[in-house]
Amino acid sequence: MASEQVVRRGLAQSQLFLDDTWIADSVGVARVLHLPRKYPWPVLKADKKWERFGIVAYGTVLFWRGKFRIWYVTWCRSSPRTVCYAESEDGVFWEKPALGLCHFEGSTANNIVYVPREGGVDCLGVIDDAGDEAWPLKAIVWRGGPRSGLVALRSRDGIHWEEKPGLVLPAWGDRTNVMAAREQSKYVVLGRAPRTVQPNYGVRVVWRTDSRNLIRWSRPQLVMKPDHEDPPRMEIYSMTAFRYESLYLGLIERMHMTPDKVDLELAYSSDSWLWHRTRPRPSFIPWGPPGSWDDSWIASPTNGPIRREGSLWFFYSGRSGAHNVAEPHNQGAIGLATLREDGFASLRAAERPGCVLTPAFRWPGGDLLLNMDARSDLSSHPQRCNGELTVEVRDRAGKPLRGYTHGDCIPLRGNTQGMQAQTPCPVLWKDQRSLAAQKGREIRLAFRLRDCHLYSFRAGMAGT
Q1: Residue 438 phi/psi, 5° resolution?
Q2: Once rounded to an integer, what is the mean pLDDT over residues 54-60?
Q3: Distance between CA atoms of 443 and 458, rounded to whole angstroms?
Q4: Are the CB atoms for 176 and 191 separated by under 8 Å?
Q5: Which of 205, 347, 391, 453 could crosslink 373 through cysteines, CB 3.0-4.6 Å?
Q6: Can you give the pLDDT at residue 118?
């Protein structure tokens, strides 16, 4: 029931329409899944000799202490991989500082920040651990060699790293992701559990484990595997997860075995354990055209999107080949794709009006704030709006409240993401009546849309 969801998630956060949680009844509306828009060129390329043929976002991008910061992995089969660091003021133009920390071909004039003491390195995930003033950044990295597995690191500045507490998850596989922030005071890893733990599914799957101290970890649980709706030769190569408003969202790396290519699919969860997949299942960030730098492999860093200028910025890893590519080696770079805030899915009505009725739930107080776009054509100018939306408030039995009918509602005809940063717009009724007056009352919301997309709603104060 929606009332249970509200208690668990909190209406002060955006409520998305990825599923039917908030739909008790509807007519004349359709759910639309929206995909990020890719920048036409990569924002970070391999242009240093220690990066060889490519770089991959098997790492993390954070906006930390006033700057964009990225930790990424160099990609080459003929020499050991390393973890490198770059920073940016705007997220588009990046600097690779000469840090003087690690040797490469007799010089330390490079941006390498981590080389393991033994074995190879792959898949580093940085954790913004704001509650630890002494060591505000942690990391989990896969290390190869005779003692392979996941190693925990710590850092004060993101540049100097210590292998402490060291090897914490022995024998875990190489494609691992860690949530970029603690969740309920726990560090969360999504990866490939040792074969001694997992049943033999015969394909790649994703396991979850967590820890309060990076030393003692919970028993791994299976959280994602292929199902009967997937193509016969598809595996779940990996998965990233992050908190977004009222949900956990994930990006599944789908490996299409024939031909060998990888892309991303959006998933969602209320608890980060039980995951659901959208329908249909489009590529969240599609491959580039044949011959481009990202035509075969799309992967995600461990972090979620970074909010910037009213949009969500998704950094991603692209490569021009997958496994067993013949020399010369495939190219790899890091790209950027953007999506409007809360813009993962919308409820849309065309020229003929449609209606959506929510289940009953208790209003916590504050204004009703909407993220919406009253355009019939989303490719047109952001403020060229020709549709409208009204909201009617009903009691639990479905009877409209006096003064809160569709006729009383002041129609909304704009786009909450325009030329300026996006601001959810408040719903008002005649005499500037707000939903704040119904605090504590059990209500239903009836949305009426025409030529309009509704992305989300929440409780809050206008202007926040």
Answers
A1: -100, 20
A2: 94
A3: 14
A4: yes
A5: 453
A6: 83
The pTM for the full model equals 0.94
Could you tell me the two tokens for 412? Answer: 């909304």
Question: What's the token pair of residue 397?
Answer: 């039995």
Fold of 37-183+239-337: Tachylectin-2; Chain A (2.115.10)
Q: Which two tokens stand for residue 151?
A: 């190693």
Residue 145 structure tokens:
């060699």
Closest CA to 249 of 16, 416, 8, 13: 16
The tens digit of pLDDT for each residue in 328-356 reads 567 899 999 999 999 999 999 999 999 99
As beta bridge partners, residue 298 has 318
Of 412, 341, 344, 415, the residue nearest 373 (C-alpha):
415
As a whole number of angstroms, the distance between CA 30 and CA 362 comes to: 26
pLDDT tens-place string over residues 192-222? 999 877 677 889 999 999 999 999 999 999 9
CATH match for 2-34+344-460 among 3.30.460, 2.60.120, 1.20.120, 2.60.40: 2.60.120
The partner residues of 240 in beta bridges, in order of sequence, read 251
Q: Rounded to 5, what percent of the chain is helix, strand, coil?
A: 5, 45, 50
Q: What is the rounded distance in angstroms from the CA atom of residue 337 to the CA atom of residue 354?
A: 31
pLDDT at 15: 97
